[in-house]
Design goal:
The chain has 408 residues and is an alpha+beta fold. It has helices spanning 17-28, 61-75, 77-81, 101-113, 123-130, 153-166, 212-218, 281-285, 295-308, 357-370, and strands at residues 10-13, 34-37, 53-54, 92-96, 119-121, 141-145, 149-150, 170-172, 177-182, 189-194, 199-201, 205-207, 227-237, 247-250, 255-259, 266-270, 278-279, 316-327, 334-337, 343-347. 26% of the residues lie in helices and 23% in strands.
């Protein structure tokens, strides 16, 4: 049994990257008694399953600003957090079909105005300087961010956890929360009860438990529309030495590719959300979903890859894994208060939370401490829980011509 404090100023449910970055930001602002609880280990949920791609390319200005703010932490993690986070500035490239050339141009201009180091690059430049093996002729246009690339989600999570602990935060692993405790009339938070029956009294609870947020908040009468969506990723050997190549968002074929600098291998992911595979929250909580990709998913991923890189026909499958990301109906997260005073949400990142996580920690701390964002150009209103019932959703300034890929 974990020996827990009887009281806390704030309890955070979930020791993934969002929970630990929030704990760190609260502690930086002199909140003294912070307890983070996780049913498993630090980073054992969606964080540890993330591809770790870093980019500023969004069609939503607010998400672009969050990615720009977060990139500073990835770049200077050792100075800020005291540990490295595996930042690899191999670059990030985004390719679109001919139908989306004008939209790409508009989004790149928006991103530049919001601080992204990005530009349109010619097919000739891509072929000569960025990724010679790519069949560029089937694409309409490309954008390139030299400071993009990827980070290590596990190292990043641990760096935030260690930095939070250094500021006095208590993190208890293998200590799941059974329920949030509320006042007799159900109007406000008074504490949490753990699975082993211990109680921590607290006026503030931040639910950063991924898809588990649905179950936790349902027990106190609040509907949080997040589902577990299965993502299937595969590792391949490209069959040739590629040298330095960037992370690649292939919007034409709805795939993304991340290089592994140390091994030369590639991680392939599917960005097509037209036919999502949802996981029952109860099964997700019990970790019962398959941990490997299906043969059909592997075949589809390799087919997409070879359609772009026909010269790499000697590519070989190395391994696969299946992740469970918590997704919202619009692909936009919840950083929100709830109808219960003292209960806050930090969940629903829909598979693209890693790159904005440092900013999320700042925003969640802002919300709890002052009730609004203190980050320039980043309003919390688009992330509120009530946006669906109010029919007031965040929309991209320049949407790409597809409805299935909501992550850009």
């Amino acid at each position: 049994m974990n020996n827990l404090p009887k009281t806390a100023d704030v309890v955070i449910i979930g020791a993934g990257l969002m929970g630990c970055s929030t704990a760190y930001e609260l502690a930086k602002r002199n909140v003294k008694n912070i307890v983070v609880l996780d049913k498993n280990a630090i980073g054992s949920g969606a964080t540890g399953q993330s591809s770790g791609v870093l980019r500023g390319h969004y069609s939503y200005p607010i998400l672009t600003r969050m990615a720009v703010q977060s990139l500073e932490t990835f770049k200077y993690a050792n100075e800020i957090l005291g540990n490295e986070v595996g930042y690899q500035p191999v670059g990030y490239m985004f390719g679109v079909d001919h139908e989306n050339i004008e939209t790409l141009n508009k989004n790149v201009e928006m991103q530049k105005k919001n601080g992204v180091n990005t530009s349109i690059v010619s097919k000739e430049a891509v072929k000569k300087e960025i990724w010679p093996e790519l069949d560029t002729e089937q694409f309409g246009a490309f954008a390139y961010e030299p400071e993009g690339g990827y980070g290590d989600p596990v190292l990043t999570n641990q760096a935030f956890a260690d930095a939070a602990r250094a500021l006095g935060v208590t993190i208890k692993q293998h200590c799941g929360v059974k329920r949030v405790l509320t006042s007799d009339d159900g109007s406000k938070v008074v504490g949490v009860e753990t699975i082993d029956g211990q109680v921590i009294f607290t006026p503030y609870v931040i639910v950063a438990a991924g898809v588990g947020a649905h179950h936790i908040m349902k027990n106190v009468g609040v509907n949080v529309p997040v589902k577990g969506q299965r993502a299937q990723l595969i590792y391949i050997s490209p069959g040739a030495s590629l040298g330095k190549v960037p992370s690649f968002g292939d919007f034409k074929h709805d795939q993304y590719i991340k290089p592994e600098v140390s091994s030369g291998h590639l991680l392939l992911g599917n960005a097509d959300h037209a036919d999502p595979q949802y996981i029952d929250p109860a099964d997700y909580d019990a970790d019962q979903y398959p941990k490997h990709a299906t043969e059909a998913a592997i075949e589809k991923a390799i087919m997409k890859f070879l359609s772009c890189f026909p010269s790499l026909e000697q590519a070989k499958l190395l391994a696969s894994y299946s992740a469970a990301y918590e997704v919202t109906p619009d692909g936009i997260p919840f950083i929100s208060r709830t109808p219960i005073v003292g209960a806050y949400l930090c969940t629903g990142f829909s598979g693209h939370g890693f790159k904005i996580a440092p900013s999320v920690g700042k925003l969640t701390a802002d919300l709890v401490l002052v009730g609004k964002s203190k980050q320039e150009g980043i309003d919390l209103a688009p992330f509120r829980l009530t946006r669906f019932e109010e029919n007031d959703l965040l929309l991209p300034d320049h949407p790409y011509t597809t409805t299935v890929n909501s992550h850009v």
